[in-house]
Structures are given as structure tokens and as C-alpha cells.
Amino acid sequence: MTNDKNRLTTSSGAPVGDNQNSITAGQRGPVLIQDVHLLEKLAHFNRERVPERVVHAKGAGAHGVFEVTNDVSKYTKAAFLSEVGKQTPMFIRFSTVAGELGSADTVRDPRGYAVKFYTEEGNYDLVGNNTPVFFIRDAIKFPDFIHTQKRHPQTHLKNPNAVWDFWSLSPESLHQVTILFSDRGIPATYRHMHGFGSHTFKWVNAEGEAVWVKYHFKTNQGIQNLDVKLAEKLAGENPDYHTEDLFNAIKQGDFPSWTLYVQIMPLEDAQTYRFDPFDVTKVWSQKDYPLIEVGVMTLNRNPENYFAEVEQATFSPGNFVPGIEASPDKMLQGRLFAYSDAHRYRVGANHNTLPINRPIAEVNNNQRDGFMRGDGNGGASVYYEPNSYGGPAESPQHKISPFEVTGYADSVAYDHDDHYTQAGDLYRLLSDEERTRLVENIVNAMKPVEKDEIKLRQIEHFYKADPEYGTRVAEGLGLAVPQGGN
């Protein structure tokens, strides 16, 4: 019997053959439910913290309305987007990612951007961030990534060694790391930042024609960010600064708004586009796929009770409505399971019956019982399907748009590994002053890292994105650019 402490295993002790890629049906997926290692990682990860959210624990929310301003019915049959002037009530939750429930608002961290649309066809949740990309592109790596952002199991302190070790070994993170340490890494308020669906989704119109789509919420207040020193000062003096700002703005009638735009890609373009369009660490060029206006979201009402509405709000990217579907994005595919599973654990199996989550559409299903069932539990109605007693039945016209699946089931990586072009393009778009602040932020964050090999490995990534980028970080850390980066 072997006793190899360096061998990664499942909780039952079986060795793990691939911890980087989910098992998919061919190159493009979808992810297979037979990937028990993936499901075990995600399910266990969702149960690691009680009772606050595992990620996005600290947040603020508000009610509002979304109004369609442009006809997009040729792209999607979603009823809430069906005509200009149509209004849909919605709720949004902004959040930081890594910190605990009592952490400061003004830390350098991505911001969660979760929107729930209460449509006549059911709730539609768009659960993204204030960045168009993410650190990783496969959900199998998500528990590991978030562990690096949490506290060391011995010291209970934040651990820059883990943070930069993981990033340096995961070059796909470079694009998001560059955004995070830029000026946009600390928004001035929740009102002064954009929001993104981040993933690629599918829109389907009434004729069954499909396109790929990305969402962009552009703030109508303008982009504003916090100076590092001011952010640190506010973190000590008013750790709830963003929460307070949002509440007071709405209370005073200064209702923040965002204009929603989408990028539309024909299905066939996904086969030939120069970046994998389903890779969430990449963006689509707006020159290739221009922004198309959809509507305006306005926040006009504060919660009456934070716990009942903000803390108990549950969002899942798997909450679709007819006309909006998933894509083969591996990170999205994992989230379709993980988010609802987290809510079933954190809030309970009946979380969707709570007022803040309850659809305005009539709910007819055969889900019964469970903890804290607060409604009629289905009464005496039929509790199975198919049935001969007039109970709710499936509606074939609402089946998903079919898509072709090919290839061998295997743990398959994305077939594009250019992690440097877009990060380099972003660096070169910045002004001289913005580049200086970016490098200073990175250098200050990397200084506490104990191992030079981690620093050097990360510097090599910066250098591959842009030689000046890597050289300046290396100089700031008193190191030379590794030979592999030249």
C-alpha cells in the first residue's frame, strides 16, 4: 500500500488524474456529470462556510426596474426583452469577492454584480462581476483559487504566497490580474463601475435561430476609482463606505442607472474566431462585435430589511428564461450547478419560496417538503409527472435550442493558450500614469511573497504580455527578468 502525501486524491482516497480540466464531451463540451472529482470539489466547496456566502459574503443590494430601449427581438424571444418600453422589476446585489461578511468595502478585489429580473416567464439571473473576464476558465480550479484568497489554515492571516503561487502557475489569470491591479481594482462606489455577465451565453429568437451573446452594463454615473491611500484610509474609518453610499444615494432620490449593451456573435464565428469565444479569461473585440444597446436599469428603492432581502437573496446563472441559454463555457457550466447547490445549503432547499427570490410567474413543480417550507407545499395537487389528473406538464416548445456534441469524453483543456496578447493589449492601452500605478500596486502586493521563484515565474508572465510590463515589475522587486521571459 502506497502512502504518497504528494499525490492529490479524492475524499475517498482515489488518485486524481487531472485537476486542471473538467471531463467534457469533446473539445467544446458540455461538461459531463460523470466527472465525480469536479462535482465533489464544487459540492464540498459550497459547504465550507456557515452561514455566510463562501464568496461574495460582503455586499449591498437595491431594487429597481429595467426598461427596454432598443428592439432586440430578432436575437431573443425572451419576453422581458420583447418590446421597446417594456419594464421589468429587478433586484441587484453588489459585493466584494474574497472578504468575510464584516470586511471592508474599499479593498482591491473584483466586485460581484448579480441581477435578478422578475419576468413573467420566471426569474432570470445574470450573475457576473465588474470585470469582463475572470482569473480561471474551468470550474474545477475554482475551489483552489478561492482558497488562495482566503486565510492560511495555521496563521488565519491572508497569504500572499498562496495568491501569487497560484496565479504564477495559472497563466490564464494574467488578464484579470492586470485589471485587478489597475485603477479599476478599487471602484469609488458601486454606482461608479460597470457590470458584466462575463460569460458567453446563447440567445434564441422565436424562429429558433441562435446567436452567442455577451452582456455589458455601462454605468451612467461614469467610471470613478479610489486612490490606494484613500481606500486604505476609508477601510479603517468606514469599512461600509460603498454600502452606505448606495443606500444614501437611493434614499436621497439620486437613482443610479446603467445602460445594458450586448455583443452578438453568429454561431458559426465561434469556430474561427481568433480567441476561444467561450473562454472567460478573454474578451471579444468590440471592433469585431460592436455593442448593441438593449435597455436601462435604474435602482430606485432600498431594501426594508437587509437580512430578508440582501442576505437571503439567492442568484444562479442557471436561472434562465425562454430565449436565453447556456454556452459551452466550462466555468459557466460548473457555476450552473454550484450556485444553486450553495443556496440549497446556505439558505435551504426552499430558498426560492422566500419573498426576495419568489418569481412573479406562477410556480408549478413537484418539489415538496424540505426545511422551512413556508408556503402551501403544493397543497393537494398532483405531485408527479407525467400524470392523468391534469397536473402541470412539460411544454415541448420550451426545450433548449439543440447543439452538436462531438469528440471523446476526456479531461480536455481549451485549445487556445494565448494568455498574453489581451493582457498586453490592455497594458498598452493604459496611460503612462496608469501603468506606473499598476506596476506599483503589483510590486507592493508581491513584496511579501517569500519565494523568489514565485515572483520570477509571475514576472515572466508579465514580460510575455509586454516586455516593459515585466521589466518594470522586476525592477520594482529588485529582480532580473528570467531568461525564459526574453
UniProtKB/TrEMBL annotation:
Belongs to the catalase family. Signal peptide: none annotated. The lineage of its organism: Bacteria, Bacillati, Bacillota, Bacilli, Bacillales. Heme binds at Y339. Residues 1-25 are annotated as: Disordered. This is Catalase. One of its GO terms (cellular component) is cytoplasm. Keywords: Heme, Hydrogen peroxide, Iron, Metal-binding, Oxidoreductase, Peroxidase. Residues 9-393 form the Catalase core domain. The active site is at H56, N129. It comes from Paenibacillus oralis.
